[in-house]
Amino acid sequence: MKVTFLGTGTSQGVPIIGSTHPVCLSENPKDKRLRVSVLVEWNSHNILIDCGPDFRLQMLANKVSHIDAILYTHEHNDHTIGLDDIRPYFFRQGDIPIYAHKRVLDSLKKRFDYIFESENKYPGSPGVKVNEIQNETFKFKDFDIIPVNVMHNRLQVFGFRLKDFVYLTDVKTIEKEEVEKLRGVKVLVINALRREPHHSHFNLEEALEFIREVNPERAYLTHISHQLGFHEEVQAELPENVFLAYDNLKIEL
Ligand SMILES: [Zn+2]
């Protein structure tokens, strides 16, 4: 399994438009963060988690030739608004399978009504194959994908476990029985927004505490704001099995 971090930034991305914050002015490519998404390559199947506003650039940067599934964590704009740009994949492959909670599907149907149209659909608009998921293991091809329920303040969000890899984003709280699903995981990805507390995201301290609880072999931090600090400085103070993810980082497991 190969995982590519397509984007590791918070909702506005880093740099923020017009910002003169030192991290936004940094010339280190690791301080430039597109909106969060990962690509999981599993036995040559390409599984995308989330499809935000930077989707097109992310696909071009990583020369992604096909998409076999899109898993959605939740409906916030930074995780969903790239859906129209699946068109090149749709033209080559046909309807693209998407997997999401019913509430997220309803939100996508509102924003992208033309994609879900069944009659008089505009030729050229993309098509999707809808898969509604609940908090239960589901099959993709021969693989089991385990949703993990987390809370983004009061909004339910799905994380996903794919074998020994877990991707969780936009977490503020998580129930004990959901943490149980993470036992024995090798790689954990978890959000860490900044140092200061936030109403709907783990800060760095909360993320590190959660990593100690789950105890994976390695952990990667994502959904990062410019307020967290310079990549190199933050990385230097992390425990040895914890890494600050950065855009286009590829890992294997
Ligand atoms: Zn988000």
TrEMBL record:
Domain of life from the UniProt record: Bacteria
InterPro entries the UniProt entry points to: Metallo-B-lactamas, RibonucZ/Hydroxyglut_hydro
Domain Metallo-beta-lactamase: start-end pairs: 34-223
TM helices/strands, residue ranges: none
The protein, known as: Metallo-beta-lactamase domain-containing protein
Species assigned in the record: Gillisia limnaea (strain DSM 15749 / LMG 21470 / R-8282)
